[in-house]
Amino acid sequence: MVGHGLQQTQNLALHQVLSPQLQQSLLILQTPLLELRNLVRQEMETNPVLEELPDQSGLDESDTVESAGDNNFKEEFEKLASLDEEWRDYMAQSGSYTRSQEAQDKRQFFFDSIPVQETLQQNLIGQLNQTALSADDRKAAEMIIGNIDDNGFLQSTLEQMALNSGIPKENFEKLLALIQSFYPPGVGARDLRECLLIQLQRQEKESTLEYKIVSEHMEDLGKRRFPEIARQMNISVEDVQSAADKIARLNPRPGQIFAAAPQNYVLPDVTVEKVDGDYQIILNDEQIPHLRISNIYKDIIAQDNNGAEVKDYIRDKIRSGKFLIRSIHQRQQTISNIAQQILARQRDFFEHGPSHLKPMTMGEIADAIGVHETTVSRAVSGKYMATPQGIFEMKYFFTSGYQTATGESLSNTSVKEAILDLVKHENGNAPLSDQQIVEILNERGIPIARRTVAKYRDELNILPSNMRRKY
Prior knowledge:
Structural class: alpha+beta
Number of strands: 8
Strand order of the largest sheet: 3-2-5-6
Strand content: 5-15%
Low-confidence stretches: 11-19, 56-69, 84-99, 110-115
Radius of gyration: 30 Å
């Protein structure tokens, strides 16, 4: 019993000593660039000894020398990273780990500072506000909007909403028709058939062949049973194929235009550019305020007429400020080291694109740059790299792979690219089956099982061969 009590006391002491540094160091390491900028701004507001360099040229010379001379900082940083999982597990089990209110408030501030994209539901409410409605009708309309998912489909029946609210079903029918007239076309539909019909109606295509096919033959259309549709409608298979191609241009998930928008706001931490025939890593430092410790507060410490309480307060803030500066420096250095390794190991990717991506694990990179694997995982999380081939999340470059017949290493991504290319160039009248794809890849020296091809095809959103056939 005594031993158990001593063990508890020791771990709780570890929590008290390491928790603030652990939280700040790891948060800075894994925070994406835009969030980090907000984090640093918040730290500057709460720590008066921190000031931003006016020329944005880098750390203050004295701080740079001190950071570079602190040989123990990297080791301490790595120790915190490697202890993190065990530390969290213990505290969760013991019930002793609670994040301070100050830390929670700071993190909420970071998230609140990030611009938020308008949701589908907010947009629909905005359109609803332009219509004069009675109190009951507005309540019913808001209930309908509240039951529309992010894809734009109504997830509750009118009967259920009428029963729950006491408002007549007829009111809900009237208001659903109103909401289905809103942007984007197809929103508020109860199923895919209704979604497509709404879009065709908005395009004034009620008298077209595609409208009739969606209205009367949706099940056969979904299964691409074109000959059966042609037989029932007494038209040619070619006419059905042409109508299906037009239907395919409609949006099966109209609400997703709101969900997809934030993906446009990606700020790369790293840029890879080709300069004089060679690739170079350029770290994005411009978005992070460059900090130093204000000389004013250093002078206050040196003055004899200031009380011990004031000096202790300033010393604490200076220590905190220096640790923040060092943590940012360590973050940037770690990301730079990882980027250099990616560049060295994936040169064929930068030259020729995703089909030349090689297998690479985080453990390999961790060993190469002398850090813990969890450090690599956190450092690449949510970070992006701008390359001549486009912008990619840094996690993208880490993938397992295959050994080809010639002994060459090939990543899973490269195999997927090969499958995508085969399907892209297949004969539409006789699309390749999964087994045929297996045989072609085997001929190219890539050993792969049929179930793996099927799995990769699903991940690439490629339909089975019987549903890709064109007539």
